[in-house]
Design goal:
The chain starts with 16 loop residues before the first strand and ends in an 11-residue tail after the last helix. A 7-stranded parallel beta sheet has the order 1-4-5-6-7-8-11, sandwiched between helices. It has a two-stranded antiparallel ribbon with strand order 2-3. It has a two-stranded antiparallel sheet with strand order 9-10. The longest helix has 15 residues, at about 85-100. The chain has 11 helices and 11 strands. The chain is an alpha/beta fold. The model has no long low-confidence stretch (mean pLDDT about 95). Helix content is about 35%, strand content about 10%. The protein has 2 domains: about 15-280, pyruvate-formate lyase- activating enzyme, CATH 3.80.30; about 285-313, no CATH class. Helix 1 (about 50-60) crosses helix 2 and helix 5 packs parallel to helix 8.
């Protein structure tokens, strides 16, 4: 039986603190990292933790800060959050309960979204990495145009959808990107995140079986591949080209899932990309929203604490 990671001891990732309505997936995407984690299973599990208990356990987590400008919360990293009616209902129950905390909420999916009011205010990442050639790569996923149509419907009940082009598959994604972006724009989606592919020997084998010419991927891998280990594919130039394509269509191009959540909720990026990583200069303008150095020092003094503030004006 699969075991859910304990909430009270979980450390945040760059996208925020991950919440798991389910564990495992059976969509079977060729590029997915869940294969190597043993999480591609026939029958994914619904998280038995009731929503009220989830909130209690989350508040016990020493890394969690409750507030609109606190810890970002992200659902969907260890399983597809809308895979079955039971899993979708658990996801929506969790979102409804978490909304009371005020923290930024994000959920990622490559299935169709229900037009449910409980998605209101939630940043929804809709994964599309291929268009005409999606079927061998994502054998049990719905067509990408159906995903984007459902995102448009979810927006009608208050969800904030973002196109999620991650991973960029060299030799595939950029060839089909114009169709992806054009349909997303027609669906009313204004922002898009681009991200790199991670590969292992097993992922390369699955991509090859799906009909992908992996020679370009292999050329871009800068580290030796070992069984069970995943290595990022060098893709900075591909991301730059993809972002330019998006901007030409009037879309807001982003470099991370964190940026999408920050933009959707109007708060500074949790991953502080504006400080030490490449910031895409989106309209959110994170730097203008952080406290000034004098304000932080004043608050520390008020609490009787001593500290040093770096990277702030």
């Amino acid at each position: 039986m699969l075991k859910f990671p304990p909430v009270p001891r979980r450390r945040p990732r760059p996208c925020g603190l991950t919440i798991h309505p389910s564990l495992g997936c059976n969509v079977g995407c060729a590029y997915c990292y869940l294969w190597e984690m043993g999480l591609i299973v026939p029958s994914p599990q619904v998280n038995p933790l009731p929503p009220g208990r989830l909130i209690l356990e989350l508040k016990r987590n020493p890394y969690f800060v409750e507030s609109r400008r606190g810890t970002f919360l992200a659902l969907g990293s260890l399983g597809e959050p809308f895979l079955t009616p039971q899993i979708a209902e658990r996801t929506l129950e969790y979102l409804s309960a978490l909304r009371g905390l005020g923290n930024p909420l994000q959920v990622s999916t490559k299935l169709t979204l229900p037009p449910d009011d409980r998605l209101a205010g939630v940043n929804v990442l809709v994964t599309v990495v291929a268009w005409e050639s999606y079927r061998p790569l994502e054998p049990a996923a719905p067509p990408p145009w159906d995903r984007l149509d459902s995102a448009a419907e979810a927006a009608q009940v208050g969800a904030v959808p973002t196109l999620f082009v991650r991973p960029i598959i060299p030799g595939v994604t950029l060839n089909e990107l114009p169709d992806i972006l054009d349909y997303a724009r027609k669906s009313g989606i204004e922002s898009v995140v681009f991200g790199s592919l991670r590969v292992s020997p097993q992922i390369l084998k699955r991509l090859r079986k799906a009909g992908v010419d992996v020679s370009e991927i292999e050329r871009r891998v800068k580290a030796p591949l070992r069984g069970g280990e995943q290595v990022y594919v060098s893709s900075a130039d591909l991301k730059a080209r993809a972002m330019e394509e998006a901007r030409r269509r009037g879309m807001i191009a982003l470099g991370s899932a964190c940026c999408a959540s920050a933009l959707a909720h109007g708060v500074p990026c949790f991953d502080v990309r504006w400080l030490y990583r490449t910031c895409t200069g989106c309209p959110n303008d994170c730097l203008s929203k952080i406290p000034r150095k004098s304000e932080v020092l004043s608050l520390l003094d008020e609490w009787g604490l001593k500290g040093r503030v770096e990277g702030a004006g």
